[in-house]
Design brief:
Length: 68
Amino acid sequence: MCQHQPLCPTADSADRESARLMAHHPEQGWSLLCNGVLLFEDTGELLPDGRVIAPHRPMGGVQVMTAA
């Protein structure tokens, strides 16, 4: 699918998220990458073959507040 030089990483590559944006819809929470990957704002992914990659947000900076 990719026409760029150098070629974008394939959907099966570990660095697939570094492919160029083809469509960006932040109001809907998704972006389409050049390699056919749908990237969602929660960091989940849908690969061109239908496989789902679960969200993988880093958990280090999360703070939980409780009501008094």
